[in-house]
Amino acid sequence: MTGTVLALAGGVGGAKLVLGLSRVLGAGELVVVGNTGDDFSHLGLAISPDLDTLLYTLAGLADPSRGWGRENETWKFMEALEQLGGPTWFRLGDADLALHVERTRQLAAGEKLSAVTDRLRKQLGVATRILPMTDNPVRTRLRTSHGWLDFQDYFVRLRCEPVVQELNYVGAEAARPLPEVLDLLADEKLRAVVTCPSNPFLSIEPILAIPGMRTAIANCRAPVVAVSPVIAGQAVKGPTTKMMRELGLAASASAVACRYADLLDAFVVDEADAAMAAPEGVRLVTARTLMTCLADRRRLAQIVLAAADAEADR
Ligand code: FO1
Fold first, then answer.
1. Tens-place pLDDT, residues 225-257
2. For ligand 1, which residues put their CB under 6 angstroms from it?
3. Contact (Cβ atoms closer than 8 angstroms) between residue 181 and residue 214
4. Is the pTM of this model over 0.70?
5. Which residue's CA is the nearest one to ligand 1's atom 14?
6. In this predicted model, what pLDDT tens digit does every residue of 140-175 receive, in sequence order?
7. What is the rounded CA–CA span in Å between residue 250 and residue 246?
8. 309 CA from centroid of ligand 1 (Å)
9. How far is the CA of 262 from the centre of ligand 1 (A)?
């Protein structure tokens, strides 16, 4: 099958599947909508961590062990900032710093985040289009046992330790999807919408919270396939299952499916969860969903696309 595939992605887990999709699809056939709820201003810099993880992963520059920032990084800036008594809890490598400085410069010159991101991905030789979920400011905030926290304070400074009681995507109600995304979702030639294995609360639902996004996905002709970020009750990485328990939800693939079952045609779970009951009207697909190498990423991408194509033929 040909046609454009639109992927919704957040951080590390989502970027892995996005890389797999980029390797099995033709150039220009993949468009990624990236979460910007994690964005924040830090040291006077406009930082978009999930867009950067997508950019570095697709450019082959990502640090494989950290999952964020660049490989072969040096930390002279951090050492000098420490010496000056500046905040170093959010680690900015020397090469990574250039990206934040350049994005901040372009935004300050009046460019939109989507234009800046598109210029940066072309500059780094990435064929896959990376689109922010909106050009408007949206910030994930969490009501926790330590009070209301900005996302990076929760995730990095406090290492996800606070107990989460509520989330708020500040600014979402006034935000708008990019016209390009709405056009893609309305395009007859759209092959599939893929919801990548990212944290539903921190990466996928900020995207779905943008007015018009959920409706556009629900109404699009293309099949919608999600991959579970939870395997046998465990998050592959990050605080997903800890948050689910704290929010009073079952820490399960099934509970993830229920978050966006109204949008899904198929839900891909790990073989460990093959026995789960799929939500009404959603086809369950089982696969090895743990991606530890590029071959795993390609294989899972092929399974996801085959599931979408099978739905399109039904
Ligand atoms: N995550 C950390 O756990 N510690 C860090 O010091 C850190 C720095 C950092 C710098 C740039 C960047 O793009 C991401 C960075 N991250 C760091 C990851 C980031 O907090 C997360 O990737 C997302 O916000 C959630 O996926």
1. 999 999 999 998 889 999 999 999 999 999 999
2. 10-11, 38, 49-50, 52-53, 68-69, 90-92, 96, 152, 155-156
3. no
4. yes
5. 49
6. 999 999 999 999 999 999 999 999 999 999 999 999
7. 10
8. 35
9. 31
